[in-house]
Amino acid sequence: MMQDASTFGGSLLSRSYLASLAGAQDGRTDASAIRAFRTICRDAASLGRWSAARAVADVFAAPMARLLGFEVRGWRPSADGLFAMTLAAGTEALAMMVAMPAQEGVERIRTRVVAAASAAGLRWAIVSNGRVLALVDCARPHARRWLSADVAACAADPDAAQGLLRVMNARTLAPDASGRAPLEMMIATSEADLRGVRAALQGGVERAALTLTSALSRGRSGGRDVEHLFGEALTVVYRILFLQFAESRGLVPVWHPTYRRAYTVEALREILEAGSDHAGMWDALQAMARLAHRGARAGELVVVPFNGRLFSPAHAPVVASRHIPDRDAAAVVSALTLVERDGGRPDPIPFVDLGVEQLGSIYERVLDFTPERDAATGAATLRRGGPRKSTGTFYTPRALTEFIVRRTLQPLVAGRAPEDILKLKVLDPAMGSGAFLVAACRFLAREYEASLARNGLAGAEDLSPRDRAGFRRLVAQHCLYGVDVNPMAAQLGRLSLWLCSLAADKPLTFLDHRLRVGNSLVGTTLNHVSVRAPGGRGRSSEATLFGPDALESIGRAREIRLALDATPDDTIEDVHRKEELLSTLESRDGPLASWRAICDAWCAAWFMPGITIRGADFAAMSAAARGDAAFSHPAVSRLLERAREIARARRFFHWDLEFPEVLRPDGGGFDAVIGNPPWEMLRGEADAKALLRFSRDSGTFRLQSKGHGNAYQLFLERSLELVRSGGRFGLVLPWGIAADEGSAGLRRALFDKASLDEVVVIDNRDAIFPIHRALKFVALSGTNAGHTPSLRLRPPIRDLADLDRLSSGAAAGSEPAEISRELLGRLSGEVLAIPGVSGAAEVHALDFLTRSAPAASSASGWGLRFGRGLNATDDRALFRESGDGFPVIAGRHISPFHVETAGLPARIPADVARGRLGDAVLRHRLSYRDVSGAGNRTTLVAAIVPPRVVTTHTVFCLRTRLPLDEQLFVCALLNSYVLNFVARTRVGTHVTTAIAHALPLPRPSRSSPVFSRIAGLARALASGPADPQLACRLQAEVAMLFNLDAGTLETILATFPLVPRDERDMVLAAVRARCAI
User: Fold this and answer.
1) Which segments in the chain show pLDDT lower than 50?
2) Which of 113, 177, 355, 141 has its CA nearest to residue 802?
3) C-alpha 565: how far from its chain's center?
4) How far is CA 200 from CA 186, 347, 385, 839, in A?
5) Residue of 963, 964, 968 whose CA lies nearest to 1018
6) Distance between CA 385 and CA 369 in Å, rounded?
7) Which end of the chain is less congested by CB atoms within 10 angstroms, N or C?
8) What CATH code would you report for 866-1076?
9) Distance CA 944, CA 540 (A)
10) Strand partners, 339
11) Are 118 and 138 in contact (CB under 8 A)?
12) What is the model's pLDDT at position 389?
């Protein structure tokens, strides 16, 4: 077994997989190769610190390449001091090898190496400075998939040398008959093993949390409910996982025999593996928590305390005071340290292979559960479907978080000095477990290091892993802010950043003043309170309510927070000073207490059912909150107390009071806002309705529609408000931000006041997110300044690996399409819906079609208006299951040109139908299905509903009076591939009237031959069985009505993969034949 996991770095292969390779008997490297390897490594040790790349190539890189079975070809120096060669086997080039000066770090040239190898058509590159040998996967440049090996450590460890030589050789890089290299299969096996480990640990976390919750609930718990006990149980789980993360990386003194034997999770795991008595297991866990919280010094053993809430007994009082049975404690440790392997002996979970993101996703999925007590037994149980699911929140894959962070932050760091990078302020307003903040932490730390090197302040050879951990600590201390309404999620965010910035011999980074619990969407500013009446839409009568006193208080708070920022985190005494400063700021006598109470009272007015706060009431509450004794009578006190209760329950968050050092009265704002905010609809539940009412009536949101509310819309508007002028934003949002009518105001603001980057659309059909596979979402980023006259839209991608290729400049599918705002206006009017297109050819087709005819609702064209019939749910009482009356149809009863009316069970009395729908129900009505999708065979499905048939809300009927032949003509157009193509670029799951009304609809004379032909074909198709020949003729007629050339028609037809190819070819052939006449 390899003795030191730090011998290898990178994520190409897991350490546990490398260890299994080293231990396997088949395919072992012979002893002579190991001796040769050691000889080359010994020679490399003779290289001086300032050895040039050529010396590294001669002494180490070339001999090592030959030992690994490669032929070395094409030695060539480069202008930047590197030395490159091509590695081949036989006639096939397999990789590029790059030797670099001994004093340079391999990481610094990775981007250049990837670009050079990719340009040469090579998947792999091997890089070395004589001290480190690294294998880089150039197909995933920004995924940072590589394997690095410490040369001296491998030479000293036979198992490590064995693992390295088995992976990094010509045989593993050479493709087999299937075109795949054995190394690719090794990577796949390693990733599958890790997925299995993560899944097993996920199950273990759930079992451990349930075991602890049950154990805590069996004894006295001070009246605390099961939800509180679940939270404390999770704290214990997170402690154990955190300590294993630290132990696996040598960030606690595992080298000391006393510490390792008495205070490590590894020691407890070994007890379980040995089958020893597990008496004292709970006491051991408690002792570890106390030591982690308090620290210790005994001779040469120094344990630096981990400050913060995780190990604090005050934040888990039931756990601190209770004794859990040792059998339960042993079950918890087993669940969190061991994984079953094919029914055999359980193996230790390799925490060295689990990064912050993997642990974060495991943590966050625990929030899918809601703890409950079994009604019959009283035992604690976990029900799937917790607050995380109910708030539309999902863990974001690392590839996507890193893409958003790179794209958003790169323009802000380009060319900046190191100290200026640390001045950047980056916010995630819905941080969850901190995935985006962790990605930002890593990115800014790397850019800080690069800036140090660029400015001659440090070289890669001067920097150790400890230094780089220190850079991440600096970034976490100075740059990162996060907010989440869920206290457990905020705890997870802290935990993730602690893991990311953890350094040996230092306390945890103090983050309590930057990672906050609060509702990002419900809050206000003192300025807004002074001009807006609470609880309604009117203006305040207290325009001069706040003056110099408020500014002075905010100034004092800003000074305290700047002092927090300036105080280091290097010692536990530093951390305690920060805790005292924050406690002073947040105390009842703190500078912001009265102003926060006033803002709470103002917001609470929207969340007090049955209570109206008038202007005079609010003035009295404000005066009382500021300590004016004249207004301290009981009625005002009761209102203030009620407001405080509501504020606590709903976690109101007043941004300028929480972060006064960033959001200054004279301007300011965050340099960047990033994240993946919740996507849930705001409807149904009372809480959601109250939030929707607040967002519409309080004046704190100005870009929202009057239709269905959605949390992502509010988060986007809030983000644009919080980012400074010229700052950057980068968010993951559902496709609705691009296409939904309810997001029109936001789109107009983005086009008018922001400079948008290329929009990247991600197709979820391969379940990138654990949501419906038919959904799409977008990576939206830009600068909060300027405007966007045209939009570059990247065709949908389905593989997150394409995000790496996008960032490196390599094409991922077809090139992006440029869509002018003028085209968007023609396609959807002021809605400015962005079409779902897959390239420039489709944009050209849309542009041509929207120029060819006026919109269906235009007065210069048909002037059509569609509307719904009855509502199948709300009007259910009108329906009968039998008897006389008009049949009732839904969208499923409509197919192209046909309406199914026979044998329908639902009926409605004729007089009731006429009373509700008027005489329209007595005539033919052109209708189309509401529910549809861009992935269906066709999207627009239209037919003529006969007289005396009632439609429900899943059918839109024509309300404009037209003769039957004109309705047949329009029906033909709606069923055409041409208009289906236009419609499906805008459709989500519904063909709304806004989409139908905007369709380009030619209106030839009723006496024209083309009108007669199209209407006649539609009549024939409506009156008989399906006829592919007639349908083909109709499709061709409509294409020629729009004057489409064969190339444009071919582009349109290619968007209908579910239509048989021969049917599409028939239409294309018919058009070509007519064009040739």
Assistant:
1) 1-3, 388-392, 544, 812
2) 141
3) 29
4) 21, 11, 20, 42
5) 968
6) 5
7) C
8) 3.90.220.10
9) 55
10) 347
11) yes
12) 45
Phi, psi of 281 (to 5 degrees): -65, -45
Query: If you compute the radius of gyration of the chain from its CA atoms, what whole number of angstroms results?
Result: 33
Residue pair 892/974 in contact by the 8 Å Cβ criterion: no
Which residues lie across from 868 on neighbouring strands?
956
Q: Where in the chain is the domain with CATH 3.90.1570?
A: 5-174
State how far Cα 1063 lies from the chain centre: 41
Cα–Cα distance measured from residue 335 to residue 200, given in angstroms and rounded to the nearest whole number:
9
Q: Which helix (H) or strand (E) holds 150?
A: strand 146-150
- The answer to whether the CB of 521 falls within 8 A of the CB of 718 is yes
Instruction: Delimit the CATH 3.90.220.10 region(s) of the chain.
Output: 866-1076
Q: Residue 752 CB: number of other CB atoms within 10 A?
A: 11
- Look up residue 170 and give its two tokens: 């010509």
Sheet holding 8-9, edge to edge: 8-9, 146-150, 132-137, 124-128, 92-99, 83-89, 71-77
Task: Indicate the SS3 state at residue 485.
Answer: coil
- Which residues 6+ apart lie within 8 Å of 609 measured at CB? none
What is the CATH code for 5-174?
3.90.1570
What's the pLDDT score for residue 561? Answer: 93
Helix spans in 68-223 (H): 110-119, 151-156, 158-167, 170-173, 182-218
Are the CB atoms for 197 and 339 separated by under 8 Å? Answer: yes
pTM above 0.85, yes or no: yes
The DSSP symbol for 462 reads G
* Both structure tokens of 753: 């006041």
Structure tokens at 420: 């200026």
Q: What is the predicted pLDDT for the residue at 219?
A: 67
Task: Please report the pLDDT score of residue 381 as a whole number.
Answer: 78
Q: Is 619 within 8 Å of 581 (Cβ atoms)?
A: no
Give exposure, 126-163, as e/b (b: 16+ Cβ within 10 Å): bbbbbbbbbbbbbbbbbbbbbbbbbbebbbebbbbbbb
Cα→Cα distances 331→316, 377, 743, Å: 20, 22, 50
DSSP 1000: B
Provide the token pair at 816: 């992006």
Q: Which residues contact 641 (CB under 8 A, 6 or more apart)?
A: none
Give yes or no for a contact between 102 and 131, defined as CB atoms under 8 angstroms apart.
yes
Q: Please say whether the beta carbons of 846 and 831 come within 8 A.
A: no
Handedness of CA 693, 696, 701, 703 (dihedral sign): positive
* Euclidean distance between CA atoms 193 and 199, whole angstroms: 10
Which of 593, 639, 603, 596 has the alpha carbon at shortest distance from 521?
A: 603
Tell me the torsion sign for CA atoms 1071, 1072, 1075, 1076.
negative
Mapped onto helix, strand or coil, the DSSP state of residue 504 is coil
Cα distance between the two ends of the chain: 79
Q: Can you tell me whether residue 383 is helix, strand or coil?
A: strand
Backbone angles phi, psi at 238, to 5 degrees: -65, -35
Give every CB contact of residue 340 below 8 A, 6+ residues apart in sequence. Answer: 200, 346
Phi-psi region of 879 (alpha: psi -120 to 50; beta: other; left: phi over 0): beta
Tokens of 1041: 């009505």
Beta 132-137 vs 146-150: how paired, if at all?
A: antiparallel
Q: Where are the beta strands (DSSP E) in 316-437?
A: 338-339, 347-348, 369-373, 380-384, 426-428
Q: What residue spans of 775-903 are helical by DSSP H?
A: 801-807, 821-828, 840-852
Helix (H) or strand (E) holding 1048: helix 1046-1053
Element (H, E) at 709: strand 709-710
In contact, 965 and 1015? CB cutoff 8 Å: yes
CA distance linking residue 618 with residue 534, whole number of Å? 7
499: nearest Cα among 308, 673, 348: 308
1058 by DSSP, 3-state: which?
Answer: coil
Residue (of 967, 981, 959) closest to 1059 by Cα position = 981
Contact of 300 with 254, CB cutoff 8 Å: no
Angstrom distance (rounded) from CA 171 to CA 70: 9
